[in-house]
Fold these 2 entries.
Entry 1:
Amino acid sequence: MATSDTTRLEAFSDGVFAIAITLLILEVKVPDHAEIQALGGLWQALAHRWPSLLGYLISFATIGIMWANHHAIFIYVRRCDRPFLLANLLLLMTVAFLPFPTAVLAEHLPDPETRTAATMFYGGVLFLIAVAFNIVWWTGIRDRRLLGSNIAEAGVQTIRRYRMGPVGYAVATALALASVWLSLAIHAGLALLFARSETGAAATHKT
Amino acid sequence: MATSDTTRLEAFSDGVFAIAITLLILEVKVPDHAEIQALGGLWQALAHRWPSLLGYLISFATIGIMWANHHAIFIYVRRCDRPFLLANLLLLMTVAFLPFPTAVLAEHLPDPETRTAATMFYGGVLFLIAVAFNIVWWTGIRDRRLLGSNIAEAGVQTIRRYRMGPVGYAVATALALASVWLSLAIHAGLALLFARSETGAAATHKT
Amino acid sequence: MATSDTTRLEAFSDGVFAIAITLLILEVKVPDHAEIQALGGLWQALAHRWPSLLGYLISFATIGIMWANHHAIFIYVRRCDRPFLLANLLLLMTVAFLPFPTAVLAEHLPDPETRTAATMFYGGVLFLIAVAFNIVWWTGIRDRRLLGSNIAEAGVQTIRRYRMGPVGYAVATALALASVWLSLAIHAGLALLFARSETGAAATHKT
Amino acid sequence: MATSDTTRLEAFSDGVFAIAITLLILEVKVPDHAEIQALGGLWQALAHRWPSLLGYLISFATIGIMWANHHAIFIYVRRCDRPFLLANLLLLMTVAFLPFPTAVLAEHLPDPETRTAATMFYGGVLFLIAVAFNIVWWTGIRDRRLLGSNIAEAGVQTIRRYRMGPVGYAVATALALASVWLSLAIHAGLALLFARSETGAAATHKT
């Protein structure tokens, strides 16, 4: 089967990432007058929105950094075939899904009875995103037929460190049974961890 | 009448496809506390969202694969005139409409009284999308004046297999009268069928 | 003051047009069970959504064709300065506003008491879009300093026919006092009128 | 650490800016029939939406002009590394957040008891956007290693005038304690001030 270049695939993916990340804010609801009365003021009602704000922060950072790393894949993968395109669509399906578990998390984080389930659901979707990202990566480098020429093996190895993503998210999800705060701290930490230097290492081969 | 190139038409279409596919998640509603109480927990309430999740899956796959095949058209069609632009706008109008029947389907799939109508409405819109896609394709290859040079007739023939799209969606829609599950299974099957190898065959002529 | 090229201006505008056109569907609400009960079935309740569907159709066609004609401007205007950029931002502000009057129209079209006001509000916004479009056009061709070289005067004259846009929309808006249906028919007619051949004529100079 | 070019970073940022600016309209709610009854007509109910319209205007202008100035940065910054990418992500996080404080402002501006807090919250977010913009700019020009060649020092100095942004927004926010109207007037004034000539001066070096 033949291949084509990745320009429009990247543009479409950029669009989905950009929209998913921007839709997150729609889940933060404006405090109404009853809520303000009950809590004693608008500032208090806004502070009461902290679960939404926390969800916005973690999900925005996760999608944003996922986008940056998605970008890094295309430093190596320069051609596109149907299996790669479908793997990429699977990844986008999980990324575009994230506003929903983020809203579930924001709604239920203050409630001791449902917060564990909400955090595990949220972590489970992050786990699926990480799995899908690895499928995209493996589909892209399989047989090296979609790779550009002049790709250093060391660079391809570097990005392989994403294999740890699903493990990290699975651990964070399971730990929600012990403490949702620990679980969310690991999610934030994983975002920061993956924020580091992939494109840096990768782009060396380009400049 | 004269023609222009297709770059900005493709960019605009990519935008509409990317937004329509990402808006689908806004129709999945967060379970509220009354619902969780009634169903016995957050996990149960999330599981109760299966019609929304099923709708999300089928519509996401359908739009995503439609995008990939829309992309494939422009391997052949390299120029753009007003009739082609308007045909493309008609296609985008049907694609951007899909979040609405998806939400109707998700809302009514659990209800035995309304699920047949909801599934037929959903299938009817998929049928219109397939018809619009064929109009775009035929407008694009008519007289061969918008085609790029060096286009193999075999490639143009390959993509003609989309003629079967409207028939498939019409059959799936009609079968909802017998069983909505069979109808939805055919929709999912058609998405997988059209996920296969068009660009592969097409891109041969490009590389 | 110096100028720069229009690539990113076009990309940003494409984004706003694509999002505004796709958000229109969010204003079409899923019929709930009470409504279905009252109207005697889901099909009846969907048919009862005709004002929303009509609004979707007219607004989608208007924004889509406005996008195509916006595209046509950049066949002539090849450079960008701050006044042009701000004029373009003004146009985007009116285009991005359209989902609101569309929703107002859809909500109030069935109500004899409020439908005239709703139609005039909708028409008034279309009038503002047409005015803003003309401001963009005049800012772009003023002094001919932003125009590309080799621009035929005839082409520039052709696109000037947009001057009739504000007049047409003003007439349609005023006629809503006599009949909202006549007013909406003129809006649809204007969309079709502007759908004709600008880029065709324009692109002649490019090929 | 190595660098890569900024094309996809700009495209992703354009997407987020375009979506955030277009989502603003979703916060303007259609007047319902009770509201129209109470206020004596649809026109009166639409006029009653002035706080939403004012919020739409100021936020649209602010994001739009921020986009134009973001664009201006990339006339100088021609390469991208991880710190710059993360600084840019921080800016997008604040920009994508703006629809929320805009909605809070629109909801509470008519209420004398909560309007001061709402205006300060809104101004506070504009302050954060301005701070993030400066972080992007400083990360971009630090050590001059991401700058293009042939960049005139005068141009780099010009854009430095954004340092005044955070100060202006902080003053406007604090003045809300005295008068929310004065505060909003300053926000509008700052948008107009920053609407002036950066790209003009900048692009000189390009043409």
Entry 2:
Amino acid sequence: MAHTLQRVSEDANKVATPDHPIHDLLALRWSPYRFSDRQISHADLLSLFEAARWAASSYNEQPWRFVVARHQDILEFHRMVSCLVDANRVWASQASALAIGIFRVTHARTGNRNPAAEHDLGAASASLTMEATSRGISVHQMIGIQPERAREVYSIPPEYAALTALALGYPGGNWMGDDELRLRDQKSRQRQPQTEFVFRGKWGQQAFPA
Amino acid sequence: MAHTLQRVSEDANKVATPDHPIHDLLALRWSPYRFSDRQISHADLLSLFEAARWAASSYNEQPWRFVVARHQDILEFHRMVSCLVDANRVWASQASALAIGIFRVTHARTGNRNPAAEHDLGAASASLTMEATSRGISVHQMIGIQPERAREVYSIPPEYAALTALALGYPGGNWMGDDELRLRDQKSRQRQPQTEFVFRGKWGQQAFPA
């Protein structure tokens, strides 16, 4: 199970600048707007979804579902591109594979709303992304999809809902997209400091004063 | 940034049995119902939340917030235990630290509902968990909390909502809890096969036939 961690980017601008040390698999992950024409192998795709499979979920419900389309399967790939919002279609068309992230809205056993469903899809997609990073593959997730078009195209049953898309591929490639995206792609990665989101005792109170 | 991957469990029963190879950090993660009395260091806690900080989020909104309580801060810790549902209070009391996972319901800029908010909290918590695994620390997330009690106790503003709790600690420890939990803790890890959740072309259609 040993993998060589390959840098997913040669661009130092895209490596996280953490205030405290974090694992390379987390620091090197980022969401590119372009991909090279190198295709992801069958074996790698299986391992990526296998990583999603072993994520944690509330009551082990495993509410995540994915529909996947490979670039090489041209008609299938274009059908999935048509489920994205316009702004995502051009750049995401460069990906080696696309997937729609779907969650089961209700608990299978009780039929009640599963309040953890979207959360657990997020965890599974993060696991998939971590596995991808370890294999030199980049993932760009997007909320900009047309969920009801995806429902129609893939016959998604009413107890499920499409939420995200994932663009998967190797870094590199030429620019496809407008200048605004190009600027966004070149920008260094920005995050709010821990003081803005980790509290202790009371809302807004710094957890770990220096 | 190099860390030694320590096995979070000596229990072979708790290592995932993937059908396709996945990274050790994902295969060794599991959610224990008991923890040893070894405490997580200040530096490790900072790195865990730093891992959450660098997760991906829709529009880089970073909707995740956490309130944390360390076991050693006895009053603070018991206040957080009181925000869990009854069934989680006994075993989670053994943790070295607890956190409440909170998301910002609306986009900060527009005030509209952020459909990715829970999803992105899930991604941040998965990143935190992966960092923990790399440091030999276990994380058990739970949906069984009392969100409105947490709102009251921590003065959580109306545009935010508590969703999860995270119990953090080192593996080991004695049994605290009932026999049903003990059985659940000893059970081997089960997951649906990829044929149940990865589709291609159409709902329910196997993505990668052998």
